[in-house]
Amino acid sequence: MIISVASGKGGTGKTLVATSLALSLNANHKVRLLDCDVEEPNANILLRVGIRHSQAVYVPIPGVDEAKCTYCGKCAEVCAYNAVAVIKEKVLVFAALCHGCGACSYLCPESAITEERKEVGVVERGDSENSELIQGRLNVGEAMAPPVIREVKKHINHGSVVIIDVPPGTSCPVIEAVKGSDFCLLVTEPTPFGLNDLSLAVEVVRELDIPCGVIINRVGVGNDEIDQYCHRQGIPILLKIPLDRNIAMLYSRGIPLVEGMPRWRQEFLRLFENIKGMVAASRLAK
Ligand code: SF4
Ligand code: SF4
Fold this sequence. Notes:
Elements: E1 2-6, H1 14-25, E2 31-35, H2 43-47, E3 50-64, H3 74-78, E4 84-87, E5 90-93, H4 103-107, E6 113-128, E7 131-138, H5 146-153, E8 161-165, H6 172-178, E9 183-188, H7 192-207, E10 212-219, H8 225-233, E11 237-242, H9 245-252, H10 257-260, H11 263-285
Parallel strand pairs: 1-8, 1-9, 2-7, 2-8, 9-10, 10-11
Antiparallel strand pairs: 3-6, 4-5, 6-7
One iron/sulfur cluster (SF4) is lined by residues 62, 78-79, 81, 83-84, 98-104.
């Protein structure tokens, strides 16, 4: 079972939910948490496993042999990411924009392009009893999160409950992290910004055909527009977490919610049972 935990915007409590679910389940299940929030992986502040392995992630970047190049411009034409420009007798490669797709080297008529490896981040692994953590970390200044996320997702193990902490937003890294999930939990807060970003995230998971449910965090801070929206859209609200000074205090001290307030463990176990039921129903309906 692969459960992704996403949010249309940052700071809604996505990592709180992902780690609480992982720590609630690990007494009876093998749990593997994949932290795909590679610009700022912070699940391990709460999970606290020892990191034992680290592996660099590389992307192939084109290098141009000027002796062979005829400056035909084909490479710039085929690059969907504007990572190559041919200006008179010069080929410019903007490595930060390159997605490493290989199209330019494949289609260069003079075979003037070779691929050079560039390190863009690392994948780190660690574990404790019944919990494993795989986290991606994008190098500072790098813009391309998807290659690091793809490497993290190679560690999906179908013998475990896999929980994916998804980057915030609704762009390419989110799609890369969420796709292939059995279920997506969307964490939001009851504010106009929360509603706006939730509705964008719902569009993404519907496009990917992944069943979803909502968790509203910091209930009490705003209004009930999220409830109304979910009702209109037929999206289940699976859990509400109140605006509570004690919860915020635990989080700021790096103490997991289900350790500092053990009654929440039952709530997250119930949440997991609900998700299992919805995944089974969705598979039957397909
Ligand atoms: S496609 Fe090849 S030959 Fe043409 S400009 Fe690019 S590198 Fe040079
Ligand atoms: S590898 Fe792909 S993204 Fe990178 S420069 Fe070539 S065509 Fe563009």
